[in-house]
Design brief:
With 760 residues, the chain is an alpha/beta fold. It is built from 26 helices and 26 strands. The protein has 4 domains: 62 residues, Single Sheet (N-terminal domain of TfIIb), CATH 2.20.25; 269 residues, 3-Layer(aba) Sandwich (Rossmann fold); 198 residues, Dimethylsulfoxide Reductase, domain 2 (3-Layer(aba) Sandwich); 126 residues, Barwin-like endoglucanases, CATH 2.40.40. The protein is 28% helix and 15% strand. The chain has a 6-stranded mixed beta sheet, covered by helices on one side. The protein has a 6-stranded mixed beta barrel with strand order 21-25-22-24-23-26.
């Protein structure tokens, strides 16, 4: 029997993937195997304050680490693409084929035919798609992408409004707030920074009132909020605009801040090139369209009572410094740009920007956020063209037709009007986007099946995911515990977490870096790719870059390993306030917007030239699928998706420990269930004209009538008739994108529900 001395307890990081947080784990390792994982929660030996404690996903990672379905050998497709039929091959065969296909596609179609899609299944600096992107850049270039599925709209319109995404305060400053509006925000499940829920709780204990606005009574609402205000999905902009109507007509707005720091508030503030155009006040008061955006106007749209809107508006404007924190699901909708800008407008007109206890809204990374996610250098892309990440299917179907009106960047430098090739080779590294996380899966997977479109698909992963089933070549990647890596504090937190190699890779699996280095050697660019470093040496190089650029006191890698630190963190003694310099002297510290001010009238959007879909002032626009459209007659229920503690997107979906702890169910209100003759626990079919899925239901009053909630991320599993059997929402979602940011609009979905007969 092993003694305690024979077992090493090593601090490491939760691989996280893309949960929104970064946490510490303690790994018990013996004889080359991880025996147990626990979070770093011992009060006598804290690394950070508050401690970076892992949720159930991190604590259950041992099951994923040693799951019987781990990929351990390279595979080559033997059946039809998508059938999931493969035969094992050697690494030499796999690497030769990969190098040969990269060379063939490049020589036939050019570098623009090579593509590494968006994906977050590997989220340390040395695991994930950045390793493959570096290889393709060393190879001469690739079609790259920008933005993300998560932040498609807010990532673009936040800087369009205030010139930066780093416009939030340090979270410790939330304790200075008197009111916190958790608008579509659920940090208890979706994380959004480790310990964000803890800081909200501390703010509440410090006297702040917390209000949750959400179609669901979420875990965050239940544990953190004083009040729940449910509203219809996709109507948040209408509620925000009605609040602005109350604030402006009752003279509750901060005229001094508006005069000094804003542009486009009223006709007296309009930029010269837009003189006479509709200002923010014009829209709110209905001066041009004859429709004042009153609380009565909003009640019909949002389902929020008029008196509630008035009360909330007055409280937000007068309570003292207030935080309006926007979640991200609301901007993954048909006109997601508008809700981001409407929330930022409320923060601006009440003067809650650049002050203690305030919040500029929008994306709002903290000013001290480091160079998170990837310091492994991808290098310059010689090809120089990039597309919005969500539009990869468009680039497969009609890449040579895609230009500026599809958000393509880099055309001016190349003196081109369109892309020079369709996508012909996809190398999916640590990504389940292709056949799971993308939209309208029945449509998307038909594209993938057509070998005349994408001629070669390689997938590099830990498991045979739905995406991997569409691969021509599968490369088995090891986990983050089986190689070296680093993670840092996402968009919040001054920490760097070390993930030392704990055990050897399982079977024949290799690290993402090693796979790419081996391919690079076959392409004759091995030295250019590795620069003579292995995984540990690159980890040391990254730590040194952190010291030079961000954290001057961070220990060396050797010191971190010898002291079993697990993480380095800098405590926050005085919270930094985002945009404080700008507020104090806008002339000396102008914003990086065309006007140098907060743009309530956006010149960027005005110049876009599509006022019906991209208005220059934030407006409520009825979505292309909504309860108010003709489609509601056939598909009357709005279907929204949430993040769940059972998964990180689709990672952990095959973890039976987490499925047992957090069963996959669709939420439906008792009124909607009664109208369909449903009982709690019934297996139901959820469907629209794009597809259908079956899933058990939970009947609950914790959701607004007319709305159902189906957590995202389950693995798409169609039967012989194409009906998904695992509750995948992406058989229902639309491939349409937001009009200005070209972001994913996956939350705009109308469906019908019926009981699924047991015999089907």
């Amino acid at each position: 029997m092993a003694t305690a001395a024979e077992t090493k307890v090593i601090r490491t990081g939760c691989p996280a993937h893309n949960c929104g947080g970064r946490c510490l784990l303690r790994a018990h390792v013996q004889d080359g195997r991880i025996l147990r994982l626990e979070t770093d929660d011992r009060p006598e030996d804290p690394i950070a304050s508050p401690q970076l404690r892992a949720c159930t996903r991190g604590r259950a990672y041992l099951r994923r680490q040693y799951h019987p379905d781990r990929l351990t050998t390279p595979l080559r497709r033997t059946g039809k693409r998508g059938a999931g039929e493969f035969a094992p091959i050697s690494w030499d065969e796999a690497l030769d084929e990969m190098a040969g296909q990269l060379t063939r596609i490049r020589d036939t179609y050019g570098h623009g035919a090579l593509f590494v899609p968006y994906g977050t299944g590997g989220y340390t600096q040395l695991t994930g798609a950045q390793t493959a992107r570096r290889l393709l850049n060393c190879f001469g270039g690739q079609l790259s992408y920008y933005n993300s599925y998560s932040w498609g709209a807010t990532n673009i319109v936040t800087p369009a409004t205030v010139g930066t995404t780093k416009c939030g305060n340090d979270r410790q400053d939330w304790l200075n707030a008197k009111l916190i509006l958790m608008w579509g925000w659920n940090p208890a499940e979706a994380r959004d920074g480790t310990n964000s829920d803890y800081f909200i709780l501390q703010a509440r204990r410090n006297g702040a009132r917390v209000v949750c606005l959400d179609p669901r009574h979420t875990a965050s609402c239940a544990s953190l909020a004083d009040e729940w205000i449910p509203l219809r999905p996709g109507t948040d902009t209408a509620l925000m605009t009605a609040m602005a109507h109350v604030i402006i007509t009752e003279d509750l707005h901060d005229l001094d801040f508006i005069d000094r720091c804003c542009s486009g508030f009223d006709q007296g503030q309009m930029p010269d090139e837009a003189a006479g155009e509709e200002s923010y006040v014009d829209y709110v008061l209905g001066i041009r369209d004859g429709v004042p955006k009153t609380p009565e106007w909003a009640e019909h749209i949002t389902a929020v009572p008029r008196d509630t809107t008035v009360r909330l508006a007055r409280e937000y404007a007068t309570a003292g410094p207030a935080v309006l924190y926007q979640g991200y699901a609301m901007q993954r909708r048909a006109y997601g740009e508008q809700v981001v800008r409407a929330g930022m407008a409320l923060a601006a007109i009440t003067g809650n920007v650049g002050i203690k206890g305030g919040w500029a809204s929008g994306l709002s990374s903290q000013p001290t956020a480091g160079p998170y996610w990837s310091k492994f250098p991808e290098g310059e892309n010689p090809h120089g063209l990039s597309i919005p990440c969500f539009l990869w299917t468009e680039a497969v179907l009609r890449g040579r037709e895609m230009g500026r009106d599809h958000g393509v960047l880099g055309l001016d430098a190349r003196d081109r009007d369109t892309l020079d090739s369709d996508i012909k080779l996809i190398w999916s590294v640590a990504s389940n986007v292709l056949a799971n996380q993308h939209a309208n899966l029945n449509w998307t997977t038909e594209i993938l099946r057509d070998e005349s479109l994408v001629e070669f698909i390689a997938v590099q992963d830990n498991f045979l995911t739905p995406t991997a089933r569409f691969a021509d070549l599968v490369l088995p990647a090891c986990t983050q515990f089986e190689t070296w890596g680093l993670a840092d504090g996402w968009k919040y937190g001054q920490e760097v977490i070390l993930l030392p190699q704990l055990v050897e890779p399982l079977g024949q699996s290799r690290s993402d870096f090693r796979i790419c280095a081996d391919i690079a050697a076959r392409l004759g660019i091995g030295e250019a790719y590795t620069e003579g470093r292995d995984e540990r040496a690159w980890t040391e190089w990254i730590v040194d870059r952190y010291r030079e650029e961000w954290l001057p006191d961070i220990p060396t890698l050797d010191e971190m390993v010898e002291q079993n630190l697990g993480a380095y963190t800098e405590p926050v003694t005085e919270p930094v306030i985002g945009l404080a310099d700008f507020r104090s002297d806008p002339g000396a510290h102008p914003l990086a917007t065309p006007s140098g001010r907060i743009e309530l009238f956006s010149l960027d959007m005005h110049r876009f030239g599509q006022p019906e879909h991209v208005p220059a002032v934030p407006k409520y626009i009825q979505e292309w699928e909504s309860p108010f459209g003709a489609e509601a007659a056939q598909f009357p229920l709005q279907c929204i998706a949430n993040h769940t503690l059972a998964r990180v997107h689709s990672t952990h979906e095959n973890n039976d420990w987490l499925r047992e702890a957090h069963p996959h169910r669709i939420w439906i209100h008792p009124l909607d269930a009664e109208a369909r003759g449903l009982a709690d626990g019934d297996l139901v079919r959820v469907f629209n004209d794009r597809g259908a899925t079956v899933v058990p239901c939970v009947i609950t009053r914790r959701i607004l009538p007319g709305v159902v909630n189906l957590p995202q991320g389950t693995w798409w599993t169609p039967d012989d008739e194409g009906v998904d059997q695992r509750g995948s929402i992406n058989v229902l979602t639309s491939e349409r994108w937001t009009p200005f940011a070209f972001g994913a609009a996956l939350q705009t979905v109308m469906v019908q529900i019926a009981r699924e007969e047991a015999s089907s």
